[in-house]
Specification:
Distance between the termini: 119 Å
Order of helices and strands: EEEEEEHEEHEEHH
Strand order of the largest sheet: 1-3-5-7-10
Strand content: 25-35%
């Protein structure tokens, strides 16, 4: 963005500032990367709370109102800072429907030791699928947040939980899936053991049948032939 007299805002796929009663429908934002370096106080301390030049935002909305639906955001990455799929900033009044966010990565070039030593103006790289400012008002056209906001593969040294309902639902789903997995694993083990036991019984039964029904008449036939041959040789 054009910084002029403003603080750098990092890499932004779409920036909406001050729009009123706007309608955004069927938007696809992807591949937003920010390789900006960490901030430094070599020229003096920062007067703001954070160094925002390292941030990546798929879509950033500020002081706007209207409707946003059918939004898809993928591959938002920051090397040294925060990363957000959708960032709804100050004093917005929006109605949302069907927001899909995938593959958001914050601080990809940092490690735990580097993050532990970060100080102002740098902050811990946080990743958010959808980040909503406390001053903004959000409604959903149909259903609740869990019905309209879907996200996957959001990674950072902090991960925001903007949607407690969705988060609880995800945890419940994970617990349910783990319970189902354990249940079916138990069933599989029991079934496998029963199959092995049944196989052993069948093999044993077949073996007993073969032994019990040995063709004695064949043996009886062989013995006279053998005796007959020895008798013929002796003659």
């Amino acid at each position: 963005t054009d910084i002029q007299q403003h603080a750098p805002k990092g890499a932004i796929g779409i920036l909406v500032n001050g729009a009123k009663n706007a309608v955004f429908d069927s938007i696809y934002v992807h591949d937003i990367y920010n390789a900006a370096d960490l901030g430094t106080d070599v020229c003096g301390p920062y007067t703001s709370d954070a160094h925002m030049a390292t941030q990546s935002n798929g879509m950033l909305i500020d002081f706007a109102s209207g409707t946003l639906k059918n939004l898809r955001i993928e591959n938002v990455q920051s090397n040294n800072g925060a990363a957000n799929g959708l960032n709804i900033y100050a004093e917005c009044d929006l109605r949302l429907q069907m927001v899909l966010v995938r593959d958001v990565d914050a601080g990809t070039q940092l490690d735990d030791a580097m993050v532990a030593t970060l100080n102002a103006p740098n902050t811990i790289p946080r990743a958010c699928a959808v980040d909503i400012d406390a001053d903004s008002v959000i409604e959903f056209i149909d259903g609740e947040d869990v019905d309209n906001v879907r996200f996957d593969n959001v990674n950072g040294y902090e991960v925001c939980q903007q949607f407690p309902i969705a988060t609880d639902q995800n945890v419940d789903n994970q617990d349910a899936m783990q319970t189902i997995s354990k249940k079916y694993d138990t069933y599989f083990r029991i079934g496998a053991a029963m199959f092995v036991c049944l196989l052993i019984v069948i093999i044993g039964y077949i073996g007993c049948k073969i032994t019990a029904h040995r063709p004695e008449e064949h043996v009886a036939e062989l013995r006279p032939l053998l005796h007959k041959r020895w008798d013929e040789r002796s003659i």
